[in-house]
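Hi again,

Forgot to attach this to my earlier email, sorry! This is the prediction with adenosine-5'-diphosphate bound. I've pasted everything inline since the attachment limit keeps bouncing my files.
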Amino acid sequence: MQPATQAWWFAAGRLLGTVLFGLAVGWLFGKPWAGLACALVIHLAWQLVNLFRLEWWLRHRSYADAPDVGGVWGEIISQIVRLHRRKRFHKQRFVQLIRQLQRSTAALPNGVVILNAQREIIWFNRMAARLLDLRRTADLGLRIENLLREPEFARYLAVKDYSNPVVIRPTTGEDCYLSLQVVPYGDGQQLLLVSDVSRQMRLEAVRRDFVANASHELRSPLTVISGYLETLSQDPALDGDLQGPVTEMRRQAERMTGIIRDLLELSRLEETDEVVGGEPLDVPALMSTLRKDVLARAKHPRDVRARVDSDAQLIGDEPEIHSAFSNLVDNAAKYTSPEGSIEMRWWVDDEGAHFSVTDTGMGVPVEHIPRLTERFYRVDAGRSRATGGSGLGLAIVKHVLQRHGAELEVQSVLGSGSTFTCHFPLQRVQQPQAAVTATG
Ligand code: ADP
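Structure tokens for the complex follow:
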């Protein structure tokens, strides 16, 4: 039998014994009920004494020993002692775990800041303190946006798209760049991860300068070569055997000129990540120009349509938007056969403004789609070279869209065609009514 069960049987037996003893003594004196009542009162008093000792020990258990009682009370006390020991053991393990966690996050090479739902600082590690110039006691409880006032960070928090980090240049550090990323967790809390990306940014700047300078330097000799090749190709005295090679050399020189032009444009776009403002643009007029450009190509799809579903204007930088849209339309023309068709579409809905180019061309295998906007990425190098592509067109489109807070969506079915859609946010839309008021 379990000790607890034994104790309960013993307690029941003792109660029965008390009752019988009370009745017997009372019977001896001719008052059995009075005897019983006295016995029960004594029994109750004994229980109260035990209850008092238990309660007193619970209050002073940090320094007092457990009362030495047997029976059910003894069982209850030993249960409490066991529970108490288990709790202390778990608490110690928990404290150890927290200490280890704090030590490991303190040793992280990246900064970590814990923010609550109001974005107030709860805790930060040593690296975060160093990178963000935080002070251990003074800055706890302050809102992070009051300490980091860089506009890029404010915009990052306002947009609430935390899938990528934002790079800021704190006013405190000379030539210092920090990458910040918010990671939401739990019940509205957030982790702010901070890392020093100054070295990467410096290398990136060196790479950009190198590409821009090399492109600049190559442009002049190439212009001379192209000029001579043109003169040569028009020379009636040119040997017939040389006609073919000279034409091919001209074609390749034109390709190189295109690549250098695109490289220079990309370098210019990469110079700043800033979102551009701009003027309201007449997209339907731009579409009609692009349509004419396609039809002016020596080889072009038979059917080129421009579908305008909104007369709203797009606020943006005219040369950049022109370059992005013309790259998309150019690709559609390049990768669609003369029997195929192209449709440009411009529309506005609750989410923003959209410009799409749909073609019935060769399409792109689905596994290539995520990489199309990388520099020099080609689905099929032969196909692209044959059409005179530089492999930089979609990289330019991506950059222009980024600078306008917009995104590129690509849908394509191999052999059936593709749709490239630019999604602009609502802030970029100017309704005609507003345009009239603004100009009137
Ligand atoms: P390119 O100058 O080579 O066309 P882009 O950056 O404009 O370079 O495009 C990258 C690659 O994406 C192209 O090489 C081509 O394979 C593919 N591509 C782009 N647009 C289309 C399209 N409309 N249809 C099929 N493939 C396309």
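The first strand starts at residue 111 and ends at 115. Residues 327, 331-332, 335, 359, 361-364, 372, 377-380, 384, 389-395, 418 surround adenosine-5'-diphosphate (CB under 6 Å).

That should be everything now.

G.
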